[in-house]
Each structure stands twice: as structure tokens, then as C-alpha cells.
Automatic annotation (TrEMBL):
Name of the protein in its database record: Pyruvate, phosphate dikinase
Swiss-Prot/TrEMBL keywords: ATP-binding, Kinase, Magnesium, Metal-binding, Nucleotide-binding, Pyruvate, Transferase
Domain (PEP-utilising enzyme C-terminal): residue spans on this chain: 517-870
PROSITE patterns to which the protein is assigned, alphabetical: PEP_ENZYMES_2, PEP_ENZYMES_PHOS_SITE
UniProt xrefs under Pfam families: PEP-utilizers, PEP-utilizers_C, PPDK_N
Record keyword ATP-binding present: yes
GO MF annotation, one: pyruvate, phosphate dikinase activity
PEP-utilising enzyme mobile domain residues: 422-503
Family recorded in the similarity comment: Belongs to the PEP-utilizing enzyme family.
Catalytic residues of the enzyme: H455 (tele-phosphohistidine intermediate), C832 (proton donor)
InterPro entries on file: ATP_grasp_subdomain_1, PEP-util_enz_mobile_dom, PEP_util_AS, PEP_util_C, PEP_util_CS, Phosphohistidine_dom_sf, PPDK_AMP/ATP-bd, Pyruvate_phosphate_dikinase
Source species of the chain: Fundicoccus ignavus
Required cofactor names: Mg(2+)
Length: 883
């Protein structure tokens, strides 16, 4: 028979998955001899079984609940209908991972019309007894019968106003009796229910309600936001009541063993005299600071300090403690690792190491990688945000941060506004490489289309610019310079604020709070680098990006996207000349000019990176992306004049190069097969630049990467051509450069023939954006239109463009890794797609033994800590397996 119910003295802190965090910690505190009211826990397994069986408590569950209730009555010497020793209990939820405020609690259970009179006599305090009954009716009605709390609150407020009563504490017995009768009427009027008078029926209905709360909307949303699995369930804790509302020698409160906002090592919290727990949360009365308890109840305060220190030392972390004082005696109702800001998290972790309470590894594990963005990007001031007018909150949070500026609908207009001294926000249906100038000078970027790996998203993250994409509630008319949203229309120059961390946009200016990367942050980062097996590189090609990455101590560059270098006007003109002309002399002249530009680009990069490895991806996009839009007559005319050709000829060339499905078309390695001089020019520029920088005393390590290879023959042909060209070049320069040539693995076929490709490559780098796109058959720029529904309907657990699809894409990556390493055990393998900055994906990449991941500069700290956490986790697993 499955055991579903555990007394507090049967569990311990290691049983979180079964007893939930609250139940496991109540059991642990009980075993430590701390003052915990007696009780028992009904397991998470019981919850999931209940939810899976049409919400029915099984006979086994019912019998075990009854038996543990009888044992609780024996331990406490109380029972539900005892005139002399009346038992009342609380019923509280408790999932394995803390979900504060997301599920439900019922207090004072066991009171009824008869027991309230017994309780009044036992306590010699009728007002207290009836106040407890009033509270039970409201909580039970709300949680069990889903009666909105507003019904009860409105009646209570109206009653107090009518009778000129200021606070709940001023209610007299007769007042409370009248309120209680009205509450019972609300049950019948709103829910067609009668409040159950049988305490055991109350208990069973409360248990079922708490089980059901696992699937309420707010719990579901919270789990999605915090990556908590939906299959865990909640435990139910049934615990003897202690009363903080029994007089002025009683109270209730919440305290943290350290300041959860700053991390300062000082007791932080508040309490209320003559109150129950929900009074603190509701904010009806102003609580007092925990420090003031020392004057009010010095003995209780001294005991609380002792217990708080004991619990923090025991758990090795800052604790969030719920407590009640009943007639001068302290009771503990819960302890858990406290929620904290990112700033506090780093400070607490470092301080705990300095105090000798935890190891460096434990400190790194305590950092929530999701919170790191708070330190690196500004955020909106919380109070100001509450007053702001919302435009939309359904955008995708592509790049975190908070920014305010005036909206402009094209890069040129944005540039003019910046020159005039304005802060701008670039608003587009979607961005393209030609928007890069406007993007780089904008405070934020907003698009109505695209997903988390769209051009706007990837580039913005790389630049550390706040960005929200896929705002389908917005209609953006770039020609009319008009943005329409559900609440109205915005014209060019309108001031808006963008929250890239949460995907929301607001009207007007909102005050921001600057980022706070302090000494504790740097310390944790240093420890993470020492611990990690995976190296963390950056995706970067601009000076600003590279300097940012180097400030985070990136191990090198894992992806230089050379196509981003071609959109300055003079470079774009020569690139267009190369593409459009059919004369070899013209092509060679254009390539010669582009070569000089590229040498300058790579000298700039290598001068910054010095001895660090740099992966340079040769041109990847289809050629038509460099050409003007066919239907933009003004642009077509301008380009034709620049190149000295007719508009008709240009139009024909644009039409010839336009593709129905360019992502599967003439791009990447296919360009080099058709235009071999293009890749040879780029390779030459890389080596000439490396030689120049080496002459200054550096040892540049360029890694030349050929994209979109799907066949061995493609890679063999191009590698041979490049090596032969560079051999002649190095002889001409009379120097040596230690370069390597590898390929970007972004096609499923490449993964399956990796054992063949490895014979012609010095390294592989997995391009997870395209590999995910090709594996699923999803357009990464359009998938946002349906992926959220897929996730909501349970068809997909995650967005595969944000977190690796382990079963499909991950299996291909692992297959390629195994095939390559079987041929060459030390073959270099890395990741350069956006998943290189995702903690869950990094755990998988660590597990299969990759050498490095590469991500946008501002994601380096996230990736670094995630890599360290993976190393610690799997070292621990390995040690356990070896034992």
C-alpha cells in the first residue's frame, strides 16, 4: 500500500519532492526540536493521483488521513468537539519548489456554530473566538467554494461604515455574530452552498481544494514564468492552530535572516500584534519592524534571534521564516530559502562563503541565472510602473532592459533624431541588416513581427539594446509613420517606454533604476570561471560588443558575423557592384576594395582580442539581401546611378537573384561554390589582418568557419581552395599565422555525416538557430505566431528557439558530437547559436562534452554561471555513481 500521509516526525528536509518544501522543512524543524505545532503532511503523490482520478480521494488516502488525524489528537490531547480541549487546524499547500502566494491556505478549520461557543469559553475571549470563525468562513468560502473574497470584504467594509467602526479589532462579539450570519447568506446566494458544520467534512473539502489549487490559473502562470514543472503537485500540511490574534501578548509575522533587497546581514521583517497571518499580507494594518519586538517581548525576540541563526546555519542560506506568538510563546510555521533580488543573491552568497558557512561551489549554485539581467540592465522603478499607461504587454521579451524614447519608423529618421539630441526607439514591422545603423543608436527596438531569434532579437541582444519583438497587438505602418494599438494611435515622435525584460510597452516616460554589478558579482563570476569546464565565448563583431564581452572576460569570440560588416554605404555599394556586374574585371575591382575594408575590420577585431581565439563565419546570407527592394523605385534609381547601370538591368538582376525561400536557397557554402573568389577574399583579409596584429607582439588565433555545409564534397572543395590560397599568401608575406578551418553545423544532414566531415575540418560549431529551424521545419521569424499556442495547448513544453529541444535537435547535436569524437577524441566542438546563452541548453552542452558555448555579450555572465552550475551538478552525480 502506498504511503500518502506522514507525521512531521517521519520526514526530513531531503524529502521535498514527496512532502513539498513546507512539509519537508516542518519535519526538519521538528527533528531539530524547534517549536513547531504538531501536524501531518499529505504527499505530492497523493495530489497528482487525486488530480488524475477525477478529483476523488481514494479509500487508502481517506483511511490514512483519518488515522493521522487520530494520532494528532492523541499527541495534542485535543479533538474537534472536545469541550475542554478543542482542536483547530490549518490546511496549507506546499510544493517542492516554493511558489509564494500562488496556492491556497485555510486557517481555524474545525470551528462551527457549536465549537465557536466552546472556543469562546475555553479562551475566555468571545470576540477572539468569533473573529476566528469569521476568518474561517471567508477563507473556506473563497478557497473551497470559489466565492470571491470581495463579497465578504465588501460586506465587512459596509458593516463597519454603517456602525462607525474603524478597524476589525474594534468589532465586538455582537458585531461579529451579525457579520458571520451575513457570510453564511453569501454562501447560499453566490454558491448555493451551506457552510459544513462537520469539522471532518471541512477538513476533507479543504484538502481537496488545496490539491485543486495546484491547477489554478495563478499557479499555472507562476510555474511557467519560473520554469517549474507542472507534474510535481502540491503537498497538503494539516497543522494544529496557534493563534496570533488571541490578545496583545500574541502576534504573527514574517522575517528574513538577511535583507532580501540588499543582502545585508541584518534581521529583516515585520509583525503584527493580535493578528493572524493574512493580516500581514493584506496590508490592512501597518506592521511593526521585527527589531521593535525586542522592546515589546524581549524574551520572545531573544528566542527568535537564536532560532533564526540556527536555521540559517542549518540550511546554509538566508531563511524566510513565518512565525506566530501565542500568549508569549513563539511557534514556527514555516522556513524556506528566502526570495531575494539579484543584488542580494550575489551579496549573500559571497558573505556566506566568507563566513565559512558554505563553499564557493554552493555559492555559485545559489545564483538564479534568470535574475542576472537585473544587474546588467536598467529596470523601471516599481512604483512608477504602477502609474504608467500600458500600450501592450504581449510582446516577446527579446533583449532585457528598460528604455524610454521617441518612436521613429526607419533607421534614417532615427539617425536624424539622434543627431538632433533625441533618444529614439526604432519601431518596425521587422528589421533587416540594413537597419543596423538605426538599431545601434536606438534606446530600444520594437517590432510587430518576428520571434526570439529574429534579426531584431539576435542583434539587439548582441548590442545589449532593450528589445521587444512579435507585438501582434501593434499595427505598424512604416509609410504612414503610424503605430496603432488597442487603445489608440501613436505618430512619429511620440514618447514611449519599453520593458525588454517583460515584453511590455508603455505610453510616456517611466523612471528607471540603473544596473548594479558590484564586487560580489565580480567575485561570483571569478569563482564560476574557475569551476566551469565549458569556456564561454561571445558572438560579436563591433568594437562596442567586443569590449562588452571582454569586460565579462569572455574566452574569445565564437562567432563573427561578417555580413554585418557590409551595410555601411561605401561597402554596400562595392558589394552590390560585385553581385550585379557580369564582367570579371568589375567583380575583381569590387573584391579588391572590399578586401581592404575587411582587412581593416579584422585588424580592429584582432587588436582587441589579441591572443584569444576568434571564429569568423564567412558570408552566410543570400545575395539578394544586399540589393535594393524591387518595388522601391527611388532606391532602385539611386543604386543604378551609383553603379553606372540602367534601372532595367538592375531590376532584372534583382529579379534573377530573388528567391522564393531564401533560407533554404543560395546562401552560405553555396555562395562560395558559385562565387569562389568571395570566400577566398575573406580568408585573405583574415590572414592579412592577423599577420599585421601579430607583428605587434600578439598571437592571433583565427578560426575560419564555412557555414551551411551539408555535404562532405562542399567542405572538401572549399577547404582545399582556401588552404591553397592562404599557403601562397603566407609565402608572399613571409610569415606564419596559426589558423584553422572548420564548419558550422546547422543542417540535420551535417549532423548525420559528422564522421565524414571531421576528416575535412579542424572544428565544428553548432548553429542552433538554423539547426532548430531546419529540424522542425519552422521559420524562426514566423514561428512566434503559433508556438505560444502550441505551448499553451500542451503540444510543446518549450519554445525550441529559446531552450534546446533535447529530444530532436539535441539528439542531432549529440549524434554529431559522438561521431566526431569517435574519429578524433579531442576534436574541438562549440555552439554559436542563441541557445549558447540559455542555462538549460548549456546544461545539455556540458553533459555531452562540448568545449565552449558562444552567446551575445550581455548573456556571458548568465552562460558563465550556468556552465559552472552544470559542472558542479554533474561532478556531484559522477561522485555518487562512482561510490
Amino acid at each position: 500500500m502506498t504511503k500518502y500521509v506522514y507525521n512531521f516526525d517521519e520526514g526530513n528536509a531531503s524529502m521535498r519532492a514527496l512532502l513539498g518544501g513546507k512539509g519537508a522543512n516542518l519535519a526538519e524543524m521538528t527533528s531539530m526540536g524547534l517549536p513547531v505545532p504538531s501536524g501531518f503532511t499529505i504527499s505530492t503523490e497523493a495530489c497528482m493521483e487525486y488530480l488524475a482520478t477525477e478529483k476523488q480521494l481514494s479509500d487508502d488516502m481517506m483511511q490514512q488521513i483519518e488515522r493521522n488525524l487520530e494520532e494528532l489528537q492523541v499527541r495534542t490531547g485535543k479533538s474537534f468537539s472536545d469541550d475542554a480541549n478543542l482542536l483547530l487546524v490549518s490546511v496549507r499547500s506546499g510544493a517542492a519548489q516554493s511558489m509564494p502566494g500562488m496556492m491556497d491556505t485555510i486557517l481555524n478549520l474545525g470551528l462551527n456554530d457549536v465549537n465557536v461557543e466552546r472556543f469562546a469559553k475555553l479562551t475566555n475571549n468571545p470576540a477572539f473566538a468569533y473573529d476566528c470563525y469569521r476568518r474561517l468562513l471567508q477563507m473556506f468560502g473563497n478557497v473551497v467554494y470559489e466565492i470571491s473574497g470581495s463579497y465578504f470584504e465588501r460586506h465587512l467594509a459596509k458593516y463597519k461604515e454603517t456602525h462607525n467602526i474603524k478597524t476589525d479589532q474594534d468589532l465586538q462579539v455582537d458585531d461579529l455574530k451579525q457579520v458571520i450570519e451575513k457570510y453564511k447568506e453569501i454562501y447560499q446566494q453566490v454558491a448555493g452552498k451551506v457552510f459544513p458544520q462537520d469539522p471532518k467534512q471541512q477538513l476533507l473539502e479543504a484538502i481537496e481544494a488545496v490539491f485543486s489549487s495546484w491547477n489554478n490559473e495563478r499557479a499555472f502562470v507562476y510555474r511557467n514564468l519560473n520554469d517549474i514543472p507542472h507534474h510535481g503537485g502540491t503537498a497538503v500540511n494539516v497543522q494544529e492552530m496557534v493563534f496570533g490574534n488571541s490578545g496583545n501578548q500574541s502576534g504573527t509575522g514574517v522575517a528574513f535572516t538577511r535583507n532580501p533587497a540588499t543582502g545585508e546581514n541584518i534581521l529583516f521583517g515585520e509583525y503584527l500584534l493580535n493578528a493572524q497571518g493574512e493580516d500581514v499580507v493584506a496590508g490592512i494594518r501597518t506592521p511593526q519592524t521585527i527589531a521593535s519586538l525586542e522592546a515589546a517581548m524581549p524574551d520572545v525576540y531573544g528566542e527568535f534571534i537564536r532560532v533564526a541563526n540556527l536555521l540559517e546555519n542549518h540550511y546554509g542560506d538566508m531563511q524566510d521564516i513565518e512565525f506566530t506568538i501565542e500568549n508569549g510563546k513563539l511557534f514556527l510555521l514555516q522556513t524556506r530559502n528566502g526570495k531575494r533580488t539579484a543584488k542580494a543573491a550575489f551579496q549573500i552568497a559571497v558573505d556566506l562563503v566568507k563566513e565559512g558557512k558554505i563553499s564557493k561551489e554552493d555559492a555559485v549554485l545559489k545564483i538564479d541565472t534568470k535574475s542576472i539581467d537585473q544587474l546588467l540592465h536598467p529596470s523601471f522603478q516599481v512604483e512608477a510602473l504602477k502609474e504608467a499607461e500600458l500600450i501592450t504587454e504581449v510582446g516577446l521579451p527579446a533583449s532585457p532592459g528598460a528604455a524610454t524614447g521617441r518612436i521613429y519608423f526607419d533607421a534614417a529618421a532615427a539617425a536624424r533624431a539622434v543627431e538632433a539630441g533625441e533618444k529614439v526607439i526604432l519601431v518596425r514591422q521587422e528589421t533587416s541588416p540594413e537597419d543596423i545603423t538605426g538599431m545601434s543608436i536606438s534606446e530600444a527596438i520594437v517590432t510587430s513581427r518576428g520571434g526570439m531569434t529574429s534579426h531584431a532579437a539576435v542583434v539587439a541582444r548582441g548590442m545589449g539594446v532593450c528589445c521587444v519583438v512579435g507585438c501582434e497587438q501593434l499595427s505598424i505602418d512604416e509609410h504612414q509613420k503610424l503605430m496603432t494599438y488597442p487603445g489608440g494611435e501613436l505618430t512619429e515622435g511620440t514618447l514611449i517606454s519599453v520593458d525588454g525584460t517583460n515584453g511590455a510597452i508603455y505610453l510616456g516616460e517611466i523612471e528607471t533604476v540603473p544596473s548594479e554589478a558590484e564586487e560580489a558579482f565580480q567575485t561570483i563570476m571569478q569563482w564560476s570561471r574557475e569551476i566551469s569546464d565549458l569556456k564561454i565565448r561571445m558572438n560579436a563583431e563591433t568594437v562596442a560588443d567586443i569590449e562588452t564581452g571582454l569586460s565579462f572576460e569572455a574566452a574569445g569570440i565564437g562567432l563573427v558575423r561578417t555580413e554585418h560588416m557590409f551595410f555601411k554605404e561605401e561597402r554596400l555599394r562595392e558589394m552590390r557592384r560585385f553581385i550585379i556586374t557580369n564582367r570579371q574585371t568589375e567583380q575583381d575591382r569590387a573584391l579588391s576594395q572590399i578586401l581592404n575594408y575587411q582587412i581593416d575590420d579584422f585588424v580592429e577585431i584582432f587588436s582587441l582580442t589579441q591572443d584569444k581565439p576568434v571564429v569568423v563565419r564567412l558570408l552566410d546570407p543570400p545575395l539578394h539581401e544586399f540589393l535594393p527592394h524591387q518595388h522601391n523605385e527611388q532606391e532602385m534609381t539611386k543604386v543604378a546611378e551609383q553603379l553606372g547601370i540602367s534601372s532595367n538591368y538592375l531590376a532584372q538582376r534583382v529579379m534573377d537573384l530573388t528567391e522564393v525561400n531564401p533560407m533554404l536557397g543560395h546562401r552560405g557554402v553555396r555562395l562560395a561554390v558559385t562565387y569562389p573568389k568571395l570566400y577566398l577574399m575573406q580568408a585573405e583579409a583574415i590572414i592579412r589582418a592577423a599577420a599585421q596584429v601579430n607583428a605587434t607582439g600578439a598571437t592571433v588565433k583565427p578560426e575560419i568557419m564555412i557555414p551551411l555545409v551539408g555535404m562532405t564534397e562542399e567542405l572538401s572543395l572549399l577547404k582545399t581552395q582556401i588552404e591553397e590560397h592562404l599557403k601562397s599568401l603566407l609565402e608572399e608575406l613571409d610569415t606564419q599565422v596559426a589558423y584553422t578551418i572548420g564548419t558550422m553545423i546547422e543542417l540535420p544532414r551535417a549532423c548525420l555525416i559528422a564522421d565524414q566531415l571531421v576528416d575535412h575540418a579542424d572544428f565544428f560549431s553548432f548553429g542552433t538557430n538554423d539547426l532548430t529551424q531546419m529540424t522542425f521545419g519552422f521559420s524562426r521569424d514566423d514561428a512566434a505566431k503559433f508556438i505560444n499556442q502550441y505551448i499553451g495547448d500542451g503540444l510543446m513544453p518549450i519554445d525550441p528557439f529559446q531552450t534546446l529541444d533535447v529530444e530532436g535537435v539535441g539528439s542531432l547535436v549529440q549524434t554529431a558530437t559522438n561521431l566526431a569524437r569517435q574519429k578524433q577524441a579531442d576534436f574541438k566542438l562549440g555552439v554559436c547559436g542563441e541557445l549558447g546563452g540559455d542555462p538549460k541548453s548549456i546544461e545539455f552542452f556540458h553533459q555531452i562534452g562540448l568545449d565552449y558555448v558562444s552567446c551575445s555579450p550581455y548573456r556571458i555572465p548568465i552562460a558563465q554561471i550556468a556552465a559552472a552550475q552544470s559542472a558542479i551538478k554533474y561532478a556531484t552525480i559522477k561522485e555518487k555513481l562512482e561510490v
